[in-house]
Write a structure and sequence with these properties.
Helices cover 0% and strands 46% of the residues. The chain is built from no helices and 13 strands. It folds into 2 domains: 32 residues, no CATH class; 119 residues, CalX-beta domain (Immunoglobulin-like), CATH 2.60.40.2030. The protein is mainly beta. It is elongated. The relative contact order is 0.21. It comes from Chitinophaga niastensis.
Length: 168
């Protein structure tokens, strides 16, 4: 068995790392990393909160704009990009062409993601409205989050807004 040792410097690692990669039981490669105290340490990823749809099974009045699936209640799932040890409360606004209290029931305008959890749901229940003759939208826009979490993902802060369409 052939064994080779290579030394690499990974600036983002504080401790020495050693692991073995086996290649088809023919050879073994030992990789070792060591960093100096003066090597810079890269900062942690920023804390982010974002939303996507959760579409339960069923046929009713809400249509998810992304998937086209219909359901009785519009459910936007609000996620954290990392687990956190405290509750994180996310406030949001509702807009769109659907009338609050006429086309849908207005939920509380904040949702709390419990400590140690990845997500929480915003539920918007559609109302039976005999006067509704055209498609209407409910736009959920995340506004603020507690515990230093920022809204959206990536450079463009995407996934901070989600749109549901209510169909007659």
């Amino acid at each position: 068995m052939l064994s080779l040792t290579y030394i690499f410097k990974f600036k983002h690692m504080k401790n020495k790392l050693s692991f073995i990669i086996s290649c088809l039981s023919v050879c073994s490669l030992l990789l070792t990393s060591s960093c100096k105290k003066e090597d810079p340490v890269y900062p942690d990823a920023p804390k982010r909160v974002y939303t996507v749809a959760k579409v339960p099974d069923g046929t009713v009045t809400f249509t998810n704009s992304a998937t086209g699936k219909k359901n009785a209640t519009g459910v936007a799932r609000v996620y954290l990009n990392q687990l956190y040890t405290k509750d994180v409360t996310v406030s949001f606004a509702l807009a769109g062409t659907a009338a609050a209290g006429v086309d849908y029931t207005v939920p509380p305008l904040s949702v709390t993601i419990p400590a140690g959890s990845w997500r929480a749901d915003i539920n918007i229940a559609g109302l039976n409205n005999a006067l509704q003759t055209s498609k209407k939208t409910v736009i959920i826009t995340l506004n603020t989050a507690t515990e230093g979490f920022e809204i959206g993902l990536g450079y463009a802060n995407a996934y901070g807004i989600f749109t549901y369409t209510i169909t007659p």
